[in-house]
Amino acid sequence: MSRPTYPPELEIVPLQKPPQAAVTVPGSKSITNRALVLAALSSRVHSITLTGALQSEDTEVMVKGLRTLGFSIETFWPTVRVNEHQGTSLVPVSSADIFVANSGTTMRFLTALCALGNGRYRLDGIPRMRERPIGDLLTALQACGVNAFSETGNDCPPVVIESHGITGEGAVIKGDTSSQFVSALLMVAPWNERASLDFGVKLDGPLVSVPYICMTEKMMRSWGATWRYDAHQHVYTFDSDSYAHYFGPDEYAIEPDASAASYFWAIAAITGGRITVSGLTRKSLQGDVRFIELLEQMGCRVEECEAGITVHGGKLRGVDVDMNDISDTVMTLSAVACFAEGPTTIRNVAHIRHKETDRIAALATELRKFGAVVEERSDGITITPAPLRGCAVDTYNDHRMAMSLALIGLKVPGVAIRNPGCVAKTYPGFWQDLGRLM
């Protein structure tokens, strides 16, 4: 895909009137990258076509990583075809060096996928990726008979996987740093082909971003996976032959991205406009669709119809919310909070300090530039509205920082976004879609 180029700073032009618009956002990154992994696992049996797939840096990195592992993937974006392969190994090649850039899903999911291989695999990324912890997943894979380790010994990438497939009775996985660790282990767990015993995955301690684990479960069921879950012990048990029916559909449709939709629903809230995002319902696989409930609490009106979900802006009031389950929309809500009456407190999101940047610290720094009063805590942030002024804001090479802070510029003159091209990570066409509201 030929992507537009941007200057070092992109000025955001305030809207002249509240928008009345319908918007179509691209496919979900989270679903696309899970579907690519699940389709690759199924490719010893048959080919699978994915429709509505997101084309972005993160998904292209995933496709490239899978190709490096020997999988045959054809891209006709937004359609992707993962072709059947005739090899005897789940992972076609026995050696690979994979670069994941700053894609957390690619790093975590492919680390687990490589554990199903027969050989040695190395995964690395950009400097920020080398600061993002992965030790909990490596420890879980070690319990599965895999020599999985951090090359530098600091529980961060580069990661090396030396494996002859997963074995044993199971593993314990902590979920308080990233739900992606849990999802990664669950997707490969049914493929314990070398063991005659059932295979268990035990969840240890509190979990973050639970809806993303639910998304993984629902997608695995679409692929035919089965398991028993002990809610008291928090253990998934996969039968010794659970992989026998884990082959997936011939075609799988990917939903529009609810995290991307949050920016446009937020625009309606901030401007008092009306925006419909097509193709999403409250029954979405994605937990981030619950963002509309927070906007309702703040004073917006939400309606759902066959076309999608519409947000009508209203007089906004501050809220006190736990956003652990929908933490990718923390920055979106923070932008909305700047225009509310009274403070907004966001709690229980300490794990977002380990994302593309330390998102709590970055938010506090940049919102203060606008004039907002911000209290930063270890697990969240409180934003008290104040008269706002235009400024140039830093994005820390974080796509969600760029898209969220741009929303403030739709009401406040003089806002410029530094490194606007970082949105290519998950939403390359964001600035064009935003421009259509003008």
Give a structural overview.
The chain is an alpha/beta fold and 438 residues long. It has 2 domains: 9-27 and 256-435, UDP-n-acetylglucosamine1-carboxyvinyl-transferase, Chain (Alpha-beta prism); 29-253, Enolpyruvate transferase domain (UDP-n-acetylglucosamine1-carboxyvinyl-transferase, Chain, Alpha-beta prism). The chain has helices spanning 29-42, 57-68, 104-114, 135-142, 179-188, 210-222, 258-271, 291-298, 330-337, 359-370, 399-408, 430-435; strands spanning 9-12, 20-23, 48-51, 73-76, 79-82, 95-99, 118-124, 147-150, 159-164, 170-174, 199-204, 228-230, 235-238, 251-253, 274-278, 301-305, 308-312, 320-322, 344-347, 373-377, 380-384, 392-393, 415-418. The protein has a 4-stranded mixed sheet, with helices on one face. α2 (57-68) runs parallel beside α3 (104-114), α3 (104-114) runs parallel beside α5 and α9 (330-337) runs parallel beside α11 (399-408). The radius of gyration is 22 Å and the shape is globular. The mean pLDDT is 95.
